[in-house]
Amino acid sequence: MLDAAQARDVNRVVVIGAGTMGTGIAHVAALSGCAVSLVDVDEGALTRAREHIRANLEKGVEKGKVEAEEVGAALSRIDTAGELGPALAGAQVVIEAVPETPELKRRVFRDVSEGAGGGALLATNTSSISVAALASEARFPERVVGMHFFNPVHIMKLVEVVTHDRAAPGAVSLARELAERFGKTAISVRDAPGFASSRLGVAIGLEAMRMVEQGVASADGIDTAMRLGYGFPMGPLELTDLIGLDTRLGIAEYLEGELGAAFSVPAILRDKVAAGKLGKKRGLGFYRWEDGRRAEPDPDDG
C-alpha cells in the first residue's frame, strides 16, 4: 500500500468518467504533475473534456493563476482511452467519477478491482452513495476510499475523504495527501448518507425549491438572500443549475430512501428534469443560461 509519505511520488492516475467531475479531476491531477489517463466509452465526451480542460487552463493564465508554460505541459500529461482494462496498467491511483448511479458504480469497482495493481489506491468521487458498499465490490476493500471533489473542481478547494470500517489507514492518509497535492483542503468524514457536504447542501437546495413552488420568492430572490444574508458564494438554486438538476434529483432520491421525509423530492425538481431542464448544461434550469452565463430565472416558475 502506498502511504502518505509517498503521495508526492504518485505519477500515474486513472480517472474513470469524462463528465464534469472527471474532467475537473483530470485537470487538477495533470496540473499537479501526474500523468493522467481519462477513460470514457463516449469518444465525444473525451474530446469535449480535453477542450474544456484547455479552456480552463487558458482562463487560469488570463487570471494570473496558471503560468503560460503550464498549459501545454498539463495537457501533454493527459491521454484518453475508451477502454478501461489497458488504461489500468501501472496505475497508482484510480478515481471513479461516473454518474451517480449505484449499480453503475458497483460495476465499475468490480472491473477496476480485476484490472488495477495490488498497491493502487481506489477512490470514488460519489457525493452520497455508501463507500463501504462500493468497497465490498472490490477484491481489496481496504484500498477503497471516497474522494468527493466539488464542482468546478479546478476552483473549489474542498475534498471530502470518506472513510469506512474496512479502509486501511494508509489509504486514507494517501487520499488526504493527494488532495493536498492537487491544491485542495481535505477533511475526513465518516461513511454516512450524504457525508457532510451533500447532506447539508441538498437539504438547503430542496427547501429553496419548495419556496419557489410555494411562491415565497423567486429563484433570484432566494439566491440573493443566501449570498448577501449568509455569505454563500453562490445561491442554492444557481448551484443546482451548475451541478445539474438530474444529478441533484438522483442524490435527493438516494438520501430520501436513506434518511426519510426531510429529503422528499419537490415536484418542481421532478417536473424540470422530465422537461429536460437540467441546468446550465442544457441552457435552462431554475435560470436561463446564455453563453455560459446566468440570465433571468425560468419564466415558467412564475
Verbal overview:
The structure is a single chain. The protein has 302 residues and is α/β, with parallel strands linked by helices. It has two domains: 4-190, 3-Layer(aba) Sandwich (Rossmann fold); 197-297, N-(1-d-carboxylethyl)-l-norvaline Dehydrogenase, domain 2 (Orthogonal Bundle), CATH 1.10.1040.10. It has twelve helices and ten strands. The strands form two sheets. The protein has an eight-stranded mixed beta sheet with strand order 3-2-1-4-5-6-7-8, sandwiched between helices. The protein has a two-stranded antiparallel ribbon with strand order 9-10. Helix 5 links the parallel strand 4 (93-96) and strand 5 (121-124). Helix 1 packs across helix 2 (43-62), helix 2 (43-62) packs antiparallel against helix 3 (68-76) and helix 8 packs across helix 10. The longest helix is centred in the first third of the chain and has 20 residues, at 43-62. The chain starts with 11 loop residues before the first strand and ends in a 5-residue tail after the last strand. The model has no long low-confidence stretch (mean pLDDT 94).
